Amino acid sequence: MNTIEGFEEHKYTPNEIYQHLSYISDKLDTLGIRYWLMYGTLLGCVRNNDIIPHDYDFDFGALIDDLDVIMTLNETIKGDGYKLEFPQTYSYDYKTLTKRENKWRVSVKIYYNNIAFGDIYLYSRCRDNYLRRYDPNQKILFWPQSTIHSNFINNLVRGRIRDRYFWIPSNSEFLLQYWYGKDWNIPIVSESQGGKKREDYDYYGGYKKMELCNMTSFINQLGIFDRPNMTEQIEWIFPKEQYDWHIKNDFSN
């Protein structure tokens, strides 16, 4: 059966998102999976203790090592109208950036009645102690700018949305500033959510000027001196527009 992107077909209300978020969170807790809120869902949690009014889905992060266990949920959630799938898109040959093939997005897409409403972004713990959306089997580096240091998820803490608590990264306010800029606590509407184009932000509201050295400086203050130096083999990358960022940020000088 064909599936469609949620925000293209159905405008979820904050109440619906909260309901689905809570349902999937309960199921992941039952499996003992380590997961955490990401991006706009984390932003709403920290800033408002609620779902962002104009958001159209929710975002989790998890470790790629737990993928097989996560996918076992399909047997228990299908009766309630939910399912998990592997989303794909065109990734680019790492050496030339010209050849492209349809590849896994290194995430899990969550559907309710065949309409998407959430993502679980999957991270590999790389040898330099940074977490990247990297699939070691197909050697895909997906969305390099999503890289974070493992310290942020080593000791997860609780954050409140409405009347319940969810797992969130430690030092979440730094991550939000890193992802959304110094004005992260001022609400904006991204292009993907129907807002206007903003020079310093991408289509999804991400801050274009993020640099991994700022994260490195922050963790240095915590007594952690890991420098980004990705040594894993890469054959595919997405998007190719982040290739230059990857070269500049993922390798120690």
UniProtKB/TrEMBL annotation:
Regions crossing the membrane: none
Residue ranges of every copy of the LicD/FKTN/FKRP nucleotidyltransferase domain listed in the record: 32-109
GO terms classed as biological process: glycoprotein metabolic process
Pfam families: LicD
Cleavable signal peptide: none
InterPro entries found in the cross-reference section: LicD/FKTN/FKRP_NTP_transf, LicD_transferase
Protein name (Swiss-Prot/TrEMBL): LicD/FKTN/FKRP nucleotidyltransferase domain-containing protein
Organism: viral metagenome
